[in-house]
């Protein structure tokens, strides 16, 4: 929660050292790695995301896990609480790992 505020304050107070998050990286993303990093690909299609009415903030690399969770909740309604724990855990883990990767990329650029 505080990361967004600190990033925006850093960008305003010292723009020469704060990376631009709205542009591609200026450094080689493969630098420092022995093997090439795999390019991330979306597993959910735009049609699926439209069908499940995902909000713009939910249309990320973890959207396929969220769609699985929504399918499970629909199938097991109104008792979807514990029936969908595995899908919820997979989505939470994916979101956490995605967040960590974005923080690492930001620090790498910085």
TrEMBL record:
Q: PROSITE patterns, per this entry?
A: CHCH
In terms of superkingdom, the source organism counts as Eukaryota
Region of interest called Disordered, as start-end residue ranges on this chain: 1-38
Instruction: Name its cellular compartments.
Output: Mitochondrion inner membrane; Mitochondrion intermembrane space
Alphabetically sorted, this entry's keywords are:
Disulfide bond, Electron transport, Membrane, Mitochondrion, Mitochondrion inner membrane, Respiratory chain, Transport
**Primary localisation category:** mitochondrion
Q: How does it sit in the membrane?
A: Peripheral membrane protein
Q: Per the record, GO CC terms?
A: mitochondrial inner membrane; mitochondrial intermembrane space
Any coiled-coil ranges, and where?
none
What PANTHER family does this protein's entry cite? Answer: NADH DEHYDROGENASE [UBIQUINONE] 1 BETA SUBCOMPLEX SUBUNIT 7, NADH:UBIQUINONE OXIDOREDUCTASE B18-LIKE SUBUNIT
What family name appears in the similarity comment? Belongs to the complex I NDUFB7 subunit family.
Q: What is the protein's known function?
A: Accessory subunit of the mitochondrial membrane respiratory chain NADH dehydrogenase (Complex I), that is believed not to be involved in catalysis. Complex I functions in the transfer of electrons from NADH to the respiratory chain. The immediate electron acceptor for the enzyme is believed to be ubiquinone.
Name the chain's protein.
NADH dehydrogenase [ubiquinone] 1 beta subcomplex subunit 7
């Amino acid at each position: 929660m505080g990361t967004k505020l600190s990033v925006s304050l850093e960008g305003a107070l010292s723009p020469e050292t704060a990376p631009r998050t709205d542009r591609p990286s200026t450094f080689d993303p493969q630098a420092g790695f022995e093997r090439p990093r795999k390019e991330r690909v979306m597993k959910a299609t735009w049609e699926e995301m439209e069908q499940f009415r995902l909000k713009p903030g939910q249309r990320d690399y973890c959207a396929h896990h969220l769609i699985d969770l929504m399918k499970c909740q629909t199938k097991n309604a109104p008792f979807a609480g514990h029936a969908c724990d595995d899908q919820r855990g997979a989505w939470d883990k994916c979101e956490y790992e995605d967040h960590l990767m974005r923080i690492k990329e930001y620090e790498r650029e910085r």
